[in-house]
């Protein structure tokens, strides 16, 4: 993690502001985002792929769709990867040009399709033969031409968690590559459909180059087959999935070093693999980063409510719950958790848990951490992606506020829920 989120004199800072002051002013639980960390991440990605002429990046709104975050990313020059009419609406309202927006998703409703068609978005990504027919019907009814890419499933193991692996032949996504040629032939001849290209997304939080390399080889071979059938591909979209660092996001002499099996992907090597794999093809290349842009910019601040011990096991109970950040409940996701204020003291092995009435309401299991007491603030790190966007009012709990920090200025970009919001 860059210096945008760091310790200064043993106090955690988000850019120029102390996290303690932010928690005191806006309350907890609280999502805080570093605007400049998000911008740095996007520029790093853009610069790492500068060897590929004309490559475009579409920010995946599902990672974090706060309109102020979207305005920031739109201003950096990104397009938008959406999966619903609601996300298209937010993208348009936040400054993304219609032609820079794509609509994906394995189960688009007629309303989703109609919304996309009437707003002239750039690409609709079809994931089944039946969907191709429905897109043609909706486009004909409205009197528009749908620019369609075909999502193929290359049967590549992304080597990530099974719940976020999407490129295997038994996943629900896309059309299996061994039968996608017939689907492409259909798409190329449908009424009110312009066949644009090929889309593939093999999974999320990928930290190795090889799964991408396998997908590139598979896609390049498939595009070659299409060419022999007289079907031109003008765009190849490799989806997203570039992983980020969740362990040791922060380092300091007073916090334990985490056992780290993570090796962040070499972006330059990845860009070279993609460039080499598609060098013979005259196609625009597209990628859809979400997590990579926004994850490291986010911190969830939470306050310690109680400590307890049961059968020798120590629990730290905090005011954030799985309704605020459910990644651990969904797939045992790991997030570093660190005190906002550091002091010399012993470390203890604890479970960090929330107040929700579920045994899955856990943020860390048997984690070595500096000892804390009631009222202390903790920072759950790397929560900019799939944090607030997965939140809910489960247990009729109020959703937290979101705050955006830009250097030494903070502003609320989503108010904390009130009781009235529940009704």
Describe the protein's architecture and organization.
The protein has 423 residues and is an alpha/beta fold. It folds into 2 domains: 49-289, Alanine racemase (TIM Barrel), CATH 3.20.20.10; 296-422, Lyase, Ornithine Decarboxylase, Chain A, domain 1. It has 11 helices and 21 strands. It has helices at 19-26, 35-48, 67-75, 85-93, 110-118, 129-142, 180-187, 209-228, 267-277, 291-294, 327-331; strands at 5-8, 11-14, 17-18, 30-34, 56-60, 79-82, 101-103, 123-126, 146-153, 175-176, 193-199, 235-237, 284-287, 298-310, 313-318, 337-339, 347-353, 362-370, 377-381, 401-406, 409-414. The strands form 3 sheets. Strands 4, 14, 15, 16, 17, 18, 19, 20 and 21 form a 9-stranded mixed sheet that branches. Strands 5-6-7-8-9-11-12-13 form an 8-stranded parallel barrel, surrounded by 4 helices. A hairpin with a 2-residue loop joins strand 1 and strand 2 (11-14). Helix 5 (110-118) packs across helix 6 (129-142) and helix 8 (209-228) packs parallel to helix 9 (267-277).
Quick overview:
This protein is of the alpha/beta class. Helix content is 26%, strand content 26%.
């Amino acid at each position: 993690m860059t210096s945008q989120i760091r310790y200064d004199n043993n106090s955690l800072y988000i850019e120029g502001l102390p996290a303690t002051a932010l928690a005191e002013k806006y309350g907890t639980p609280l999502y805080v985002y570093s605007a400049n960390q998000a911008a740095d991440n996007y520029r790093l990605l853009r610069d790492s792929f500068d060897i590929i002429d004309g490559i475009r990046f579409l920010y995946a709104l599902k990672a974090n769709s706060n309109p102020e975050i979207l305005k920031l990313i739109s201003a950096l020059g990104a397009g938008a990867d959406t999966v619903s009419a609601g996300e298209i609406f937010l993208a348009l309202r936040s400054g993304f040009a219609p032609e820079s927006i794509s609509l994906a998703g394995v189960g688009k409703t007629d309303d989703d399709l109609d919304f996309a068609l009437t707003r002239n978005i750039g690409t609709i990504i079809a994931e089944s033969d039946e969907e191709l027919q429905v897109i043609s019907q909706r486009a004909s009814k409205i009197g528009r031409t749908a620019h369609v890419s075909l999502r193929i499933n290359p049967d590549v193991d992304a080597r990530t968690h099974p719940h976020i692996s999407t490129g295997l032949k038994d996943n629900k996504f896309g059309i299996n590559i061994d039968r996608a040629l017939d689907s492409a032939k259909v798409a190329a001849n449908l009424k009110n459909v312009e066949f644009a290209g090929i889309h593939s997304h093999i999974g999320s939080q990928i930290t190795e180059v090889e799964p991408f390399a396998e997908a590139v080889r598979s896609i390049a071979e498939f595009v070659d087959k299409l060419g022999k059938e007289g079907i031109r591909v003008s765009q190849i979209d490799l989806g997203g999935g570039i992983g980020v660092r969740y362990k040791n996001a922060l380092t300091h002499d007073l916090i334990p070093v985490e056992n780290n099996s993570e090796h962040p992907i070499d972006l330059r090597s990845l860009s070279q693999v993609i460039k080499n794999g598609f060098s013979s093809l005259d196609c625009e290349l597209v990628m859809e980063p979400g997590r990579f842009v926004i994850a490291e910019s986010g911190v969830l601040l939470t306050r310690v409510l109680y400590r307890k011990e049961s059968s020798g096991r120590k629990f730290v109970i905090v005011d954030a719950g799985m309704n605020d950040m459910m990644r651990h409940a969904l797939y045992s996701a790991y997030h570093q958790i660190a005190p906002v204020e550091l002091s010399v003291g012993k470390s203890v092995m604890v479970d960090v848990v929330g107040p929700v009435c579920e045994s899955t309401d856990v943020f860390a299991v048997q984690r070595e951490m500096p000892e804390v007491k009631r009222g202390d603030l903790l920072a759950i790190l790397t929560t900019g992606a799939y944090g607030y966007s997965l939140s809910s009012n489960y247990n009729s709990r109020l959703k937290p506020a979101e705050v955006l920090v830009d250097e030494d200025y903070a502003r609320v970009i989503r108010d904390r829920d009130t009781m009235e919001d529940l009704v």
